[in-house]
Structures
1.
Amino acid sequence: MDTVAGARQSDAADIELSLQHPDHFADRYASQIHRYAARRLGPAAADDIVADVFLIAFRRRDRYNTERASARPWLYGIATNLISRHRRSEVRTFRALARTGVDPIAESHADRVAAEASAAAAGRQLAAALAKLSDGDRHVLLLFAWADLRYEEIAAALDIPVGTVRSRLHRAQATVRTALGNTNPLDTDEEMNR
C-alpha cells in the first residue's frame, strides 16, 4: 500500500476512533490549512481559522463520511467557509497588494524570493484580478493554486460538481490571464497532470 492511500485510510480511521476516544482526533493537516488561510487572510487570522476549522471538524466528526478516505478536502471546505466570512478583509488585502506590490505573507526565504520575483513581474495586476473575482471563482482558483488540491478535492471541499470546479477555474484563469497581459502564472505541466 502506498503512503498516500495509507494516509487516506488513516484519516477515516482516526475520525472513527475519535468518536470513542476524543483525545485521538488528529490535526495532521493543520500546517497546510494554516499556510492556505495565511495566504488568504494573513497570519493572525490564519491562527484563528485553523483553530476554528479543527473545532468545527471535531464537533462534526460524527457526520464525517468515513467512506471518504482523506479528510483533507473536508477540512479545506470548512476552512473555505470560514474564510468566506472574512471576505472583506481578504479583498482589502488584495487591493493593498495591488497598490503596493508587496506580499508580506511569504512562508520561507525561497517563497519570499519567488514572491518578490512574481510581484516585480505581475503582483499588482494579479492581486487586482483576485480582488475582482467572484467568491466562488476565487475559492476554486486559490484552493487549486495555494492549497494544491486536485479538481475532485476542490469539488468535495466546496460541495460542488467537478464540472463546476473546471468551469470556475477556467473563468478565473481567463480573468487572471487577461489582467496579466495574456499570460498565466498557473500554466504549468503540473496543472495538466491533475
2.
Amino acid sequence: MNQVRQTRQLHTRALGNQGLKVSALGLGCMGMSDFYGERDDAESIATIHHALDLGVSLLDTADMYGPFINEELVGKAIRDRRDQVVLATKFGIVRDETNMQVRGVNGRPEYVRAACEASLKRLGVEYIDLYYQHRVDLTVPIEETVGAMAELVQAGKVRYLGLSEASAQTLERAHAVHPISALQSEYSLWTRDPEQNGMLDACRRLGVGLVPYSPLGRGFLTGEITRPEDFAEDDYRRNSPRFQGENFARNLALVEKVKALATRKACTPAQLALAWVLAQGDDIVPIPGTKRRKYLEQNLAALDVTLSSTDLADITAVFPTDAIAGSRYPEAGMRMVNA
C-alpha cells in the first residue's frame, strides 16, 4: 500500500517572468555533504523528506559539493518524490582532484553540455528545473556560455536558467541571449552586496528573481556560534576572514544586538534574520542550508514572523549595511566573484 503524505502548502514566490514558482523558502543542501563538518546522510535525507512534507519545493545543490556526492544524495532523497521538487543545481566551479582547496572556473560550451549530462545522471532525473552557472568564467564570453545553456532548455534537459555571483552587467548580457529566471548571490544582514553593486536593481529591471544563499551568515546569525574554536577541523569557516581574530569579536557584538531584537519579537535570531531577507521583496527566495530536521523547522517558522517598518528600521539601526568586519571569502574566493 502506498503511503499518503500530508504536504503543507507554503506561500509561493515567482522566480523570473518565465513561469517558475517555488516555495518562499528553499533548502540549501551543500552542508549535507561538504564544508561544514561531518556528514550524516541518513539525517540529511530525512531532512529533505521533512522539508518536502512541510511544503518546501526548492532544493539547491551543485556538482562541486563533495564534489559530486551532494547531487547523488539529493537524487537518492527525491527518487520517489520528483513531482514535489523544483530541483536546482549548478556547474562551472571545477575542483582539483589532487587538492580540493584549489578551484577553477569553466564556462566553455562543451563543458556546459558535459556537466549537465553528468548532473542528470547523478541526480537520476530526466531534467533539471533550474540550472545555474556557479561562477562566471571571465575567459569565455557569457553569451557563449548562456547560448550552450539555452540549447539545454531547447533539448528539454533544463527548464529554467540561472547565474550565481554574476555582476549586473553580466546579467544584462546573459539575459539578452536567453531569459534568466534567477540570480543566486550571498545576501543577508551581514552581506549586503546585492544592494550596493547594482545586482538587485538589475534583477528587478530585468524581472529576474534573487535567490540568497547563506541568508544566516553561514550560521553566525543564529546566535549559536560563540567561539571559532568550536568549528570542526574541516569546517570551511575556520578559514573565513569574518570568523577570525578581531573580526570575529566585532561581528559577534553585532549578533548580540540581533539577539536582543529577536527576544523582543519572541522569535529566534535566525528567524529574525530570515524574516529580514524575506521582507526585502516578494521576488526574493532565500535558501538557508541545514542538515538537521530541527533547524529546518525553526527556519520555516520565520515565515510566520512579520516585521513592521519600525522593526526593519530598528534592525538597520543596530546592523547597518557596512557594519560587518572582514571579507566574505578568502582572497582566492573573492577573485571568483564577478562583482
